[in-house]
Amino acid sequence: MDDPMPKRPRRNEGVRALTRGLAILRFINARGAARVGEIARALDIPRPTVYRLLETLEEAGYVALSPSSSLVRVTRLAASLGDGYAATSELCQVSGPVFAEYAARLVWPLDLSVHDHFSMVIQETTHNRSPLSIDRAMTGYRMPMLRTSAGRAYLAFCPDEERRHILEHLTRLGDPADQPFLAPVFLDRMLAETRARGIAIRDGGEFRPQTASLAVPILTGEGITGCVSMIWIRSAMTTEKALETGASPLAEIAARIAAALNGAPD
């Protein structure tokens, strides 16, 4: 009688864990940021297993959990796995603890945003923890350049050639809401005032009419890296009071983030 078919060796659990861990890294790197539930569903890996693998990857320095949200991002150490989000991930990592420190002091919500394809995209926020916020789920929200304080701060402090390229693209798009703010008389005044103050203002109901905002640039040796904004309810506070309340803390936050990105101790 022939020998029975030999049983296939059980797959090495260490190899399986490594394969899953690499799949998780690839998924996060491709998305820029992801939540545990998203990873579990997309890769068909049980949620407890995803948590366990993320803990291992975080201990090894390959991923970081946002201090202000449930998002997981890759770190600079994982930059060789892709070219998409290493710089933004580092920005979010150094910004999270600073945001957490200032959130209670300012109370009004804070946003960290970066320029991406002619929009400002929120990467970190304290909307979810601010008792004065009327917005939720803002991480990943895309904001217009001309009608937000973050976009205006970015335009004021980005290189001239980049600004020209952004404005030409917005002109070609022809969004009616942008037209008043593309007028040279508005642009020249807005850019000059923003540079003189070091802070951009949105307070005319041009975007999300219930709120207004201030924004400052994060300036490193490589130029403008992103913007920090404070958002308030227009009916609750004047722009003058908002500047009195938020201008100095926003400048401090941006300076601390820039210093950390430049490698200086906090």
What does this structure look like?
Helices cover 47% and strands 17% of the residues. It has nine helices and eight strands. A six-stranded antiparallel sheet has the order 5-4-3-8-7-6. Strand 6 (200-202) and strand 7 form a beta hairpin. Helix 1 packs across helix 3 and helix 4 crosses helix 9 (239-261).
What would a concise description of this structure say?
47% of the residues lie in helices and 17% in strands.
Question: What keywords describe this structure?
Answer:
6-stranded antiparallel beta sheet; two-stranded antiparallel ribbon
The main pleated sheet reads as: 6 strands, antiparallel
String of helices and strands: HHHEEHEEEHHHHEEEH
Shape: globular
The poorly predicted ranges are 80-84
**Count, helices:** 9
- End-to-end distance: 75 Å
Strand line-up in the sheet with most strands: 5-4-3-8-7-6
Give the helix/strand class. Answer: alpha+beta
- Compute the CA-based radius of gyration: 22 Å
Q: Summarize model confidence as the mean pLDDT.
A: 86
Helix content: 40-55%
Strand percentage: 15-25%
List the helices and strands and how they pair.
Blueprint: H1 13-31, H2 36-43, H3 47-59, E1 63-65, E2 72-74, H4 86-106, E3 110-116, E4 119-125, E5 142-143, H5 149-157, H6 160-173, H7 179-182, H8 184-197, E6 200-202, E7 211-220, E8 223-233, H9 239-261
Antiparallel strand pairs: 1-2, 3-4, 3-8, 4-5, 6-7, 7-8
Helix pairs in contact: 1-3, 2-3, 4-9, 5-8
